[in-house]
Amino acid sequence: MKADLHVHSRYSDGADTVREVLEQAVAAGITHISFVDHDTTAGLEEALALGQEYAVTVIPGIEISAYDFRRNRKVHVLGYGYRPDAPHIHALCRPLLERRHRHTLEQAGKIRETGLRLDEEQVLAMVPEGGIAYKQHLMDLLTNAPFESSDYRQLYRSLFKDGGPASGDIRYIDAFDAVRAIKADGGFAVIAHPGQLDSYGLIPELAAAGLDGIERHHPDHTKDDHERADRLAAELGLFMTGGSDCHGRYGHPVTLGEFTSPGNPLLMSCKHS
Question: CA 262, 266, 55, 127: dihedral to nearest 10 degrees?
């Protein structure tokens, strides 16, 4: 059994289609996969159907863009194995998706004001599956430089960070509401890459609200992150997950299945394929 429980597709901010990701998964020998596109389950039906075609078990997944209002920082919450219609997740995330789409189109307008060519039709043509525009789509239209290159990072920072013309962010979902929605839809709630966003302090509080697991294995995690995750999981009775956080060319180069958690009880509990 080889799993990757954190991959993205064109239903959110991934560069590859569900089929293309599954083709890569088969080549990597992956048996279980979860598409955790941001704030949407729109790709689940396609992923389940193609999973059967490629003989890969697809576990329903989502990554909710949440916020720790006590500490004033972002936190991502992964949801797995929820019921297919996911009414609570949809009700919580739909307004967020609408805010993100409007915000990205506004960002495109502000970038146009700097003299760079970026019309709305181009932007909308980049997002046929999910229908939601992301910053990654704007960058794809503005540069051919690889994501990991200094040219890409410099352009991104000049536009979206440090007071750039398209800086600023949307209002995110309360992390506790994210956990509750996932649980209400019969799913498992897992905190994503706590080392990346420094979410460790929130984990005991979310565990009291129903959090099930910690994403231990992630490309951004260090040995220290693994040790902190191990301690918290043991103290709070949480299981651990792992994934590549693959975004295709919209993210750092990663290998599917490289960051996994063998024997994860989630893989045994979710029988979708």
Answer: -110
